[in-house]
Amino acid sequence: MAPDFEPLKNDLILRTARGEKVERPPMWVMRQAGRYLPEYHEAKGKHDFFECCRSPEIASTLTLQPIERYEGLIDAAIIFSDILVIPQAMGMEVIMVDKKGPHFPDPLQTPEDQQYKEVMDRQVDVKESLDYVYKAITLTRQKLKGRVPLIGFCGAPWTLLSYMVEGGGSKLFIQVKTWVFKYPVESKALLQKIAELCVEYLALQVQAGAQMIQVFDSWAGELSPSSFKSFSLPYLQHICDKLPRRLQELGLERVPMTVFAKGAWYALDELCDTNYDVVGLDWLHDPAEAYKVARAKGKTLQGNADPGVLYGGKEAITGVVKEMVEGFGGGKQGWIANLGHGITPFVKPDDLKFYFEEIHRYTAS
Ligand SMILES: Cc1c2[nH]c(c1CCC(=O)O)Cc1[nH]c(c(CCC(=O)O)c1C)Cc1[nH]c(c(CCC(=O)O)c1C)Cc1[nH]c(c(C)c1CCC(=O)O)C2
């Protein structure tokens, strides 16, 4: 059974995602619970990153930090977790190396390996193995007391496959390119398996209390337009086509869905033709041009300032805000204000506050 929660006091982001006219644009930023916040380091203490994800108490505390700091300015929370919990649920070991990022000690080698067969044959139970995520979502909803909606998320199949074969971040993507170009059939079978797990995982996040979901395809920009159509888009589509049906089976209402395919500027048209309600943009897009494409198809956009602008001081921040507000039609329909990617370490929390305040100022009626 879905748990009971206090009614929402601020549903701005949900209305905007559904394409409704709104009083002002909703605002949040990717990676808003993170290393730029001193309170994040304090609460995290000596805990390992994945230990924080696995503790509903710590994960909910971290999720709420930006909501409390930017109260009145921020319109959504995103659950503190990571896209790499799916590879973990698939039986792969992932560790977070301080100041370096995620590391797989034993990445997938080739589809001829025994390890590939094991991963393909394994019955993965995301209900049981990711139970801690659902518990964190439910606890966070309780602690939010209806202040803002809670976003659930997962990694896109292409991005997760990249991590599973590269073993971590990459510059050249040699391993995953070898996989998709040399072994397309086996790669697609694994991409499909990951996509099916994503659907179930997201549905269970909604059951636990997530009110909106986002799929992060952080490495989409490593693919050419035609490779994106072969190795990413069909699996992104599988998720947005199958999730509403799965929610219905579970007796749950459809929630707004966002796709963020970083670097895939060439696929804006195709992404606007999918069943996602919101298309996330990185900063390679000109707001006005993207807005024209999206509004013609009734989609809401999310984004898209270069996170690096937050290092540039007030004048730079005001400049990018003006460009976005003008480009995204004034901010009263079809735009969720965000950055074009996650907020980066060493940004001063007050500079993010100024970013939010400027968006507020330029869109106040
Ligand atoms: C690619 C990716 C990952 N994780 C994620 C993505 C997709 C988004 C993107 O492209 O940035 C998604 C993610 N990771 C995290 C969240 C939490 C919610 C939020 O506040 O947005 C979300 C939505 C926490 C995190 N995930 C990570 C941290 C930092 C951990 C720490 O050092 O304390 C946080 C707060 C670690 C992480 N996790 C990952 C990387 C590459 C890294 C290291 C780089 C970095 O630190 O930014 C994998």
Automatic annotation (TrEMBL):
<keyword id="KW-0963">Cytoplasm</keyword>
<comment type="similarity">
    <text>Belongs to the uroporphyrinogen decarboxylase family.</text>
</comment>
<dbReference type="InterPro" id="IPR038071">
    <property type="entry name" value="UROD/MetE-like_sf"/>
</dbReference>
<dbReference type="Pfam" id="PF01208">
    <property type="entry name" value="URO-D"/>
</dbReference>
<dbReference type="InterPro" id="IPR006361">
    <property type="entry name" value="Uroporphyrinogen_deCO2ase_HemE"/>
</dbReference>
<protein>
    <recommendedName>
        <fullName>Uroporphyrinogen decarboxylase</fullName>
        <ecNumber>4.1.1.37</ecNumber>
    </recommendedName>
</protein>
<comment type="function">
    <text>Catalyzes the sequential decarboxylation of four acetate groups of uroporphyrinogen-III (octacarboxyporphyrin) to yield coproporphyrinogen-III (tetracarboxyporphyrin) with the formation of intermediate hepta-, hexa- and penta-carboxylate porphyrinogens in the heme biosynthesis pathway. Acts on a number of porphyrinogens, but only coproporphyrinogen III can ultimately be converted to heme.</text>
</comment>
<dbReference type="InterPro" id="IPR000257">
    <property type="entry name" value="Uroporphyrinogen_deCOase"/>
</dbReference>
<comment type="pathway">
    <text>Porphyrin-containing compound metabolism; protoporphyrin-IX biosynthesis; coproporphyrinogen-III from 5-aminolevulinate: step 4/4.</text>
</comment>
<dbReference type="GO" id="GO:0004853">
    <property type="term" value="F:uroporphyrinogen decarboxylase activity"/>
</dbReference>
<dbReference type="GO" id="GO:0005829">
    <property type="term" value="C:cytosol"/>
</dbReference>
<feature type="domain" description="Uroporphyrinogen decarboxylase (URO-D)">
    <location>
        <begin position="26"/>
        <end position="35"/>
    </location>
</feature>
<keyword id="KW-0350">Heme biosynthesis</keyword>
<dbReference type="GO" id="GO:0006783">
    <property type="term" value="P:heme biosynthetic process"/>
</dbReference>
<keyword id="KW-0210">Decarboxylase</keyword>
<feature type="domain" description="Uroporphyrinogen decarboxylase (URO-D)">
    <location>
        <begin position="151"/>
        <end position="167"/>
    </location>
</feature>
<keyword id="KW-0627">Porphyrin biosynthesis</keyword>
<keyword id="KW-0456">Lyase</keyword>
